[in-house]
Amino acid sequence: MEDINVRSVRYPVTVDQKFEKIALKLGRTKRQVFIQMVDYFYKSKKDPLDLNDELLKNALMKNHQQYIGFIRNQENMLLIPIKTEMDRVSVSQAKIIKANTDLLNNQHALAQKLTGINAVMETISKNQKSKEHLKKQFLFILDGYIKSREAFGMMTSGREKDELIVVTRSQVNLL
Q1: 45, 89, 110, 125: least buried by Cβ within 10 Å?
Q2: Are the C-beta atoms of residues 172 and 138 closer than 8 Å to each other?
């Protein structure tokens, strides 16, 4: 078997102290941490001198720009037409509410007028009934007058005729 650990790296003591702290913090050996660091930089293609991680920033900015583009596209395709339609619906609803209010007010006015007409009709009906009753009473008085007048003969005095006229007039005045 051949030993695969044939390479060594030399570095200062201060770096070794930092390296030791990192290994302890991660709970691994320094050798494992070193191998993982090399794999990390190899796979991510990052430059260890780039502490601000410009590649990550660039990737984030690219994704951010894509999201903004997507949102603007959705805004143009969906949000603006939806808002336009909602505004149109809102205006339409306001017109409908105004029309309904006007219709309701007109119905109330019509109901009041119909109530007034109904009261007038009842008064007319009562007057018509009282007129009919008055006619019946007058016909009764007239019939009594006619019968009394016919009962008079040639010999009836003028006083009796005058009394009949006075009684008939008083009966008509009582109506």
Answers
A1: 45
A2: yes
| Start-to-end CA span in the chain (Å) | 147
Q: How far apart (Å, rounded) are the C-alpha atoms in residues 12 and 21? A: 15
**SS3 at position 12:** coil
Q: How far is CA 95 from CA 27, 81, 90, 104, 142, in A?
A: 73, 21, 9, 14, 68
pTM passes above 0.70:
no
Render 46-65 in DSSP notation, one character per residue: --TT-TT-HHHHHHHHHHHH
Spatial distance between the Cα atoms of 31 and 42, rounded to a whole number of angstroms = 17
- Looking at residue 155, its amino acid is M
Q: What token pair was written down for 157?
A: 């005095």
As a residue count, the chain comes to: 175
* Contact between residue 48 and residue 41 where contact means Cβ atoms under 8 Å apart: yes
